[in-house]
Amino acid sequence: MLFDKKIEPCCSYCDSGVRISPTEVACLRRGVVSAGGSCRHFKYDPLKREPPVAEPLKTDGLTKEDFTL
């Protein structure tokens, strides 16, 4: 999903932009823009994409026997 060819354009993970706050991106072409915006010069940079936060592990019902072989 992070390396999908048909990614929806978004300034927050464009090659021309640098995130300056959670809602703003400094674009080399357009200046300071909204992180959710996009333009026709969009070029996807997968390293700028943030993966979703993992769900915390639920350990309430585990016992010592669950960890023995």
Short précis:
With 69 residues, the protein is an all-beta fold. The protein has strands spanning 17-19, 24-27, 31-34.
How would you portray this structure in words?
The chain is 0% helix and 16% strand. It has 69 residues and is mostly beta strands. The chain has a domain at 7-49. Strands 1-2-3 form a three-stranded antiparallel β-sheet, with no helix packed on it. Strand 1 (17-19) and strand 2 (24-27) form a beta hairpin. The radius of gyration is 19 Å and the shape is elongated. The two termini are 36 Å apart.
**What are the low-pLDDT stretches, counting only 5+ consecutive residues below 50?**
none
Mean pLDDT: 88
Roughly what fraction of the amino acids lie in strands? 15-25%
Count of extended strands: 3
Give a short account of the largest sheet.
Answer: 3 strands, antiparallel
Strand order of the largest sheet: 1-2-3
List the helices and strands in order.
EEE
Overall shape: it is elongated
Q: Helices and strands in order, then pairings?
A:
Blueprint: E1 17-19, E2 24-27, E3 31-34
Defining key terms:
mainly beta; 3 strands; 0% helix; single chain; elongated
